[in-house]
Batch of 2 targets.
Target 1
Amino acid sequence: MSILVDKNTRLVVLGMTGRQGSFHTRLMREEGTNIVAGVVPGKGGQQFEGIPIYDTILQAKLAQDANACVFFVPASAATQGILDAIDAGIEVVSAITDGIPMHDMLLIQEKLKGSRTRVIGPNTSGLITPRQAKLGIMPSMAYKPGPVGVMARSGSLSYEVCYELSKAGLGQSTVVGIGGDRIVGTTFAELVPLFEADAETRAIVMVGEIGGVDEERAALTIKEHCSKPVVAIIAGSSAPPGKAMGHAGAIITQGKGTFESKREALQAAGVKVVRYPREVVQALREAF
Amino acid sequence: MSILVDKNTRLVVLGMTGRQGSFHTRLMREEGTNIVAGVVPGKGGQQFEGIPIYDTILQAKLAQDANACVFFVPASAATQGILDAIDAGIEVVSAITDGIPMHDMLLIQEKLKGSRTRVIGPNTSGLITPRQAKLGIMPSMAYKPGPVGVMARSGSLSYEVCYELSKAGLGQSTVVGIGGDRIVGTTFAELVPLFEADAETRAIVMVGEIGGVDEERAALTIKEHCSKPVVAIIAGSSAPPGKAMGHAGAIITQGKGTFESKREALQAAGVKVVRYPREVVQALREAF
Amino acid sequence: MDLYEHQAKAIFQQYGIPIPRGLVVRDESSLQAAFDAIGQESFGVLKAQVLTGGRGKAGGIKVVDSLPQALELLPNILGMRIKEFPVDSLLVEERLHIKNEYFMGLTIDPEASLPVLLLSPRGGMDIEEVAKDYPSALGKYVIHPSRGLPSFAVMDLARGLGFPHRLWGALIDIAGKLYKAFCQEEATLAELNPLAETTGDSLIAVDSRLSVDDNALFRHPELNELKKGFKEMSLKDKGLDYIDLRTGEVGLLCVGAGMTMLTMDLVAQAGAKARCFLDVSHGISAEGLSTALELLASEPGIKCVLVNMFGGLSRMDEIATFMLQAIEAMGGRFPKPILIRLQGTNAEIGRRMMMEAGYVVSTELEELMDNFKELLKGTK
Amino acid sequence: MDLYEHQAKAIFQQYGIPIPRGLVVRDESSLQAAFDAIGQESFGVLKAQVLTGGRGKAGGIKVVDSLPQALELLPNILGMRIKEFPVDSLLVEERLHIKNEYFMGLTIDPEASLPVLLLSPRGGMDIEEVAKDYPSALGKYVIHPSRGLPSFAVMDLARGLGFPHRLWGALIDIAGKLYKAFCQEEATLAELNPLAETTGDSLIAVDSRLSVDDNALFRHPELNELKKGFKEMSLKDKGLDYIDLRTGEVGLLCVGAGMTMLTMDLVAQAGAKARCFLDVSHGISAEGLSTALELLASEPGIKCVLVNMFGGLSRMDEIATFMLQAIEAMGGRFPKPILIRLQGTNAEIGRRMMMEAGYVVSTELEELMDNFKELLKGTK
């Protein structure tokens, strides 16, 4: 078991023939991912290392019964692509793309309501169920199959944490990068019930950081809906008080977003909060 | 008591200085309606028989704390006016205007969600709580205060029915014309709970006609949510089978919309169904 | 406003929906052009253009092999009446090799008051029965206009209804175009039936219907132009809602649809039958009343006229003034028995005016119907 | 990208939001023009243009009566640093007679991930404290973009917060314009504080802030133009996220914001302090790495550099190649102590390359931090 993606995932790679797209298509395949199609407008009918290429997501979906997409296209093309994926009824969209304008995400968010699509990201390292499906850019060497569900805001930090976990023999059920942007398709709070419902996941690691209120929101969900042990690592505890986001920003977050605010909220939900990757391993060992 | 409008209604008349607007402003006032403002773009700052005129609905709302509007403007201006009234937070909109395009109503309908506005009509004779508030064009002589709540698709037929009721000493709590168009702001089914909750209303009369499925939908609501006696008059029982609306129309209504379909649905909900106005009086007398 | 098949097809073609080659023909002279446009190979099908269903069963569609055969059949079809509708034009189209007949339609779902896409793999003439007897053979998707018609919705319908996989793409494509036409033309109904699969694995709209919103015509000049071909639409321009029931003997002149229907029911109750409705509620004018009265006077099927009005917006003094003016222009006297009832706004003045001109005028509905029953006795 | 007050105001003015008369001044020569634009009557207020709060308390705002007085004060303000930000321009504005100070702002509600309008009758410098201590003095309305900002929502806020009735219309008007600016300029923050009521019963934006979405600049050429004034933005164009903490002594070069923050935490744990972050995750290039290394080498406050990278998208062999190229161009040797850790995609190759060039390279994070602690010991 796992969440969102596994060996039944039928993946379409957007921008398959580009520099990043082609490099990571190979790496995702090496992880065991079932890549059924690529989409590159204008190259429909061609192939990339045996994988058929289509002009549109819908064509790929129709021809290959695809149910997931990963985006290796620039921001200027990604918004339309995500809207197309929602329109086509793709179930999981891993939006690696960095730099999607915030107001585009407002549009995407409204379109997501009433759709069947879950968007992971944007500006994410993607998601991986080790040895089954990888829809992202994370270094495979850091991951092993196992019982820990990981969700992270920062890609690089999640690599480090998973690498430590793997070295310590604590493999991962699924690792999801929610993305670093202000508006993301899927929040920590929305992933908690999925990990809770997944039989293989025995504990959850949240890789958070200062800023935003996503960790605080997740704390509420964990408190009410999660029976599994949760460990959170929050980066940025030593950061000086943030650059002002204007009064409106400060008012609306009302003191949330700091390390202390996140630690308090999470501890109140029974979450063990740490600062450094090694401590995650230790806390998990205590929890198991 | 009554529903939707009463002597606390603070009415704005759209198109107050036009031919119909001025004529009916006087008649509505004679009924006792508290008309606090008129709206005629370009005539802001003027007065009409002592009533201040504003350029926009919002200005009228701000200056006079208005909570209701009645529309005497042509269809080409009404759509924008209704959207403005929703935006301004007007609570009751009586859209007398006839000829509003259907696709405009689709737009208005979506805008109504999440708003505080209830639109009556369009293409309606309006609504009246006799001697308290009249937001419409119905002939006042047909109405008397009393215990019968009336809701009607056809204006002219509701005049006839109310006239008969009044002659028989059966006055009305509130009479609402839902309007004759394919898409209306408020349906019979939505009015039933309002009449049910109104202490003064002791019985409900539904003035329906063949076509559409609004009577059938109301039957479900009546069955589940209405404890008061309901009498329905359905016009058109002698009409020959309707001109085809295309297969799609026939398929989607699936035999609904006929006199028989409406009678069956309503009788199953405990509603007495009649054909002629005099029979309404008789049925009500039996019900009381 | 319901458009003719050929008008609907011309519009759908602008949106890229595939339709058969063909040409409208109103007399023998243009048949040659239609033959040339289609070509010998797939010539041809003659289809009577009428705004009613059941045209095939009534003999309004003929398949021919040659121009002479078409020329021979043409006068028969052009002369016929289908359900009382006279045929005055034909659509001549190419013959197609049809493997399967499907149904696709867009209309307003009356429950949701939202557009709904309907799709069925069992299209053709009996689609209504299919929908009733095999509801699982009909798929529906209710559309939220702000979200549009997503591809996956069409795909789900196609999959769920067992459409072959090779057609999903074409169905999505055509549904998207049909929805675009539905929105842009402000239609109330847009229908492709049958939407046929030909030997080439492609889909084509063999028959089409399109009804557009009368209320929106003012912003669609090209549709407004078509209006001229429809008697009921030109009456509408004068504020008259006109419905010709094509049988019966009593002409009705009322204000408001509900009142019109009630009057029709009362006429039926009295043992007679309404021939036509004229509802003058959409703007009373001298011209409108005059047109209405002339129509009632001239239509030979109408033996007598009932005027039944309960005015709200319409003022009965105005109505009386306009009616008297119109009758004056018709020679001073309405040429058929006419019974009048006026009630509502300024009704007393109106009644007095009509009575002074010598007409039988009632105040109450019962009174009008009693007079009508007397009239019926006299004519029988 | 956070804009300067005068830039924000110039944009808001385009949307019809009332702002004071004024002019930007960078030296004495343009003060006369500002004086002429404002006029003797209401001259003037000098406001330091810095991208940080607390400018008033730091002496960055001065009220003057005359041009000579302004000329006298100008050099003091232009020379000052406010929270380490040097002041190199002033906004000279008219003096206003302010009766009340309100607050209006638009930003993204992090709970709903939707735009939110904030309004308070107690605006001015202490608005954050007001919001915390008197939450009832702050009104919020979450906006659904497809529905827009309805007038009644603003009216409800104004009424609920006790704004005088005479201002409701102006508040609705300005909120509508501010929301329009927020959407069209693709802002992340738009704020009028104080939004002041003057003696004339009208509202005017005495101070304004506008932050626009860096990611959307590509479709706003006029905003993109402003970017040149901001060092961090020009670095961003080279794929570098740069944050200058303005104190501390360790320069950090990492891939990814989370890793950067972790490294900063580890530096703090070791008893040192990070001076700046350089996150190269948004596109690794020779030019980007070279710019980053030059900045770290040249900034005098930076005593040593930590490079900590765990690459996914970024390939560590590429990173090593680009770093070595850059160092070569700087003279063959990086001029400060530098500790490097490379992990992830192609890390082994990268590490070998750096080691062969004579640098201290780690594989594991602990190893890097042990080396760092050693380095610290040596320097103390």
Target 2
Amino acid sequence: MKATVHVTLKNGVLDPQGKAVRNALGALGFDGVKGVRQGKFIELDLVETDPATARENLDAMCRQLLANTVIENYSIEILE
Amino acid sequence: MKATVHVTLKNGVLDPQGKAVRNALGALGFDGVKGVRQGKFIELDLVETDPATARENLDAMCRQLLANTVIENYSIEILE
Amino acid sequence: MKAAVIVFPGSNCDRDVKVALEQSIGGPVSMVWHRDTDLPPVDLIVIPGGFSYGDYLRSGAMGAHSPIMKEVAARARRGVPVLGICNGFQILTEAGLLPGVLMPNAGLKFVCKDVYLRIGQANTVFTRLYRPDQVIRLPIAHHDGNYFADAETCKALEDEGRIAMRYCSPDGEITEDANPNGSLGNIAGVLSANRTVLGLMPHPERLAEAALGGADGRAMFDGLVEALAA
Amino acid sequence: MSETSPEPRQITPDIIARHGLTGEEYAKILDILGREPNITELGIFSVMWSEHCSYKSSKKWLKTLPTEAPWVICGPGENAGIIDIGDGQAAIFKMESHNHPSFIEPYQGAATGVGGILRDVFTMGARPVANLNALRFGDPGHGKTRHLVAGVVAGIGGYGNCVGVPTVGGECTFHGAYNGNILVNAMTVGIADTDNIFYSQASGVGNAIVYVGSKTGRDGIHGATMASTEFNQDSEEKRPTVQVGDPFTEKLLIEACMELMATDAIVAIQDMGAAGLTSSSFEMASKGDLGVELDLDRVPQREEGMTAYEIMLSESQERMLMVLRPGAEDMARSVFEKWELDFAIIGVLTDTGRMVLTMGGERAADLPINPLAEASPEYDRPWTPTPASPPAAAIPPGDDGPPLESLKRLLGCPDLASKRWVWEQYDHMVMADTVHRPGGDAAVVRVHGTAKALAMTSDCTPRYCLADPVEGGRQAVAEAWRNLTAVGARPLAITDCMNFGNPEKPEIMGQFVGAIEGMRDACRALEFPVVSGNVSLYNETQGKAIPPTPTIGGVGLLEDLALAVNLAFAGEGQDLILIGETKGHLGQSLYLCQALGSETGPPPPVDLKAERGNGDFIRAMIGGGRITACHDIADGGLLVAVAEMALAGNIGARVTAPAATPDNRDPRLYAGWLFGEDQGRYLVTTTDGDSLLGEAGKAGVPAAKIGVTGGGAIELDGQRMTIDELRDANERWLPEYMAGP
Ligand SMILES: Nc1ncnc2c1ncn2[C@@H]1O[C@H](COP(=O)(O)OP(=O)(O)O)[C@@H](O)[C@H]1O
Ligand SMILES: [Mg+2]
């Protein structure tokens, strides 16, 4: 079973990456970019076949490792 | 207009980050993880309102900056 | 001989390489701001180490697109030697002046330490004072020095003698243990097809003076001066 | 989204308490204002009178530290201390804690700690040339320790490496008492021209107040996060307490400031550290006896709808405040724009002596500056002296084991194990002036473009401080002095970071008072004044305080770096000489901890007169080129010091214990000689032992030949262990530990 996790910075947390990318895009001549936020995208391949259990496990993985919940949010998607 | 870009490593390119995450998950007792690939997730806020033009611009941004096409693939989504 | 060091806002080895070059040249080196579009006529262009634009997206990705790089590429095409050290190497690959990419270190950590290197190609303006297969000691200091290129490219580099140096053990063995970052084939530095562009992860400028614990890097600068001082 | 957080109109006792203000302090506020403060004003009072900004519990005692010497240009009170290093140059340095943020979010907490201390130094006109970091983690077996070590070290490296300032030294030790409260102390050393130093005292009514650097967000609004839950439910989400560092912007800020500092545009400058815009503007005005008017609408903001309260209390990183000379604004703006940084004139200096803030056309605050600063609370908190420790546990005969096995165990214990895993993640060579890299007694960094060098170290032994804060304070200063001496440097001055528990408890306050007393003695006796520092109190979790930890950062000068020595054995067949008196003090030694698991006894006493005599002798001998290697004897004692010298030089040694034969030795005396932690001692090597012993005799310094270098092993009274085996023990522990789950 495949799943994906998106990890993004919480609102209000400074995103130096996003800021730098936005500036660089501006320097390249892409001016119409109002904001950029950069996050992580994690694809997992799981042995588990039951979606509900998988989601539960993934939630634990996110809290324990994949996301830093002090500054990051995460969202889980089960792809089948 | 909001858009997202996913940047992922091409098949065949070694992903040390993904490997490390997988090992760390194993060490935490999550054994059913067969593979992990880690990529980037970029959210953009654009002035452009026409989806087709936006996509075209984003494609150029990806080729020029957001992805290194030697090792990475990218995909663009226009969120409206 | 005239040399220019390109300075990006986040460069932090620009002064170091200037000092090392000036020691060998015996005269001043010019510093060129990344946003300038014209470059004085020079015999050597150096892209120094550091974090050109913070390097938050991918090391060197933004530096490769800065205004001065168009001119650097044009000079390189005309055969002006270009030396990229560390972040400079990353910028050269991102700019397409050298093949391959530098990915995050296999250990996923920043590594700062001395490494041993075996010279692969001594017949260049950069490495002419080293012997083929000579083992030298230089420091590395990077988070993204894991060299990768597809099989075809690697073979071409190998066949064309474009691997400038590889990480090795103190006695010159190319071993996995001696590989500090996971680079393919222990590659530490590569050359352009005409061998006038060199990118390398180790920092020759940091060990170019005995007072700092070694001078194996000095020969690179001395060699350049010998070759280029017309 | 342009809603602003609804703010309370009424200041309730609850809101006052949430701002950490006592009833008495609030009464003082009413008295000063002659009316009730609004929420913004209350916030300003709360941060200005916080322990962190006002030093209310510590001030009385800090004042008793020696702060002067002929070479001190500026002592405590400015952003960092300044000492003269000759030839028109000064070293500017300071240490600061970032303990709590690093426990919450180790990477960003440590990273922003580095960023903050860098700003303290370059705000004075100094280019930062080196960073150090003193780290205290919990027990390695504790569930959080590994994660904290990984994050903190990556964060320190992540910031310092990108900014391009080498991280050249520090400490990294482990103790269960830090399980719930780690310590992350960061130090920066910079170099400036003595005629181009910048201070924070504002002057010139009508001069522009300029904001530069990053935009202001809702980062780290401390009191506010707590106070705000009350008036806004999703405030947690809106006001992250964790600050994220942006080292690239810091690098730009350094370069831009240096560029502007080369002109005569700046009248005064102050970084925005803790309590951000509030304390920076307040302090500049207060020092200059002036007033300020700020238009908060002009403050560059990262988010929409920020309130005056949020803008004033934000701890967003990478920001500075300056007062510019009239007419210099445009030139200054062009410099900051070149470096792509925000630049905004946000206000003006006035002669009213008041801080007046406006926002949205309304008056957001109006406070008298001097009365507020003068009324800043100062407490003489009750304290009780720390009771003397009972004697150290006895070593039962036979329990001490073969000494070389004990040595191996000590070299592999968490406190003594090599910290290579740490410093290899730090770029310790950038700027190409690092002469002695991490791993020795003090780092040595060349003064760029000269033949001189600065030596720097950070030291403290919390075990000693807990058992006896006075002796521990004395020892920490003495050890820093000794480490500088051991490379041949003349120790010049220290900065400190006083990490303690809750000062409202008399026994904790007693530890603080004791440590200061010990430091004072040592600073005086060694002519080693305190020029800057930082106090971090309330380091407690669930009522359990950390051991008193007065971290000392020392800086010394080498007039000729070619004369510097380090600890590595430099050749075979050299005489190994022990300098200083050995009584075999085992109380609080690492040996007792490791062999018996016992932290007992009084710490080793520091005889400051002997310390000075021995150190001055060592320095003279190094300066005269008489010594080939030198190492002070610290944690682990003599045999550990020998082994460290052997490992560094990859040359062994044969060591002979004094007089008695092994079989008739009292185990305690033998262990004391090998592993005791008597202070004021050094090991040196020389090609001419007799002549060195002669010199020592003339100088009245205790000295004895204890062995000779050579071979690939440490040999002790007929036993031997190879350097490789010892190295393996020393190098293996930390990487293996960090590779664990
Ligand atoms: N956190 C750290 N960062 C950089 N260097 C460190 C760190 N911890 C320890 N070191 C280095 O390891 C060596 C040994 O440290 P320590 O045992 O504290 O030395 P000493 O006993 O001489 O004070 C020193 O060179 C020190 O600078
Ligand atoms: Mg020492």
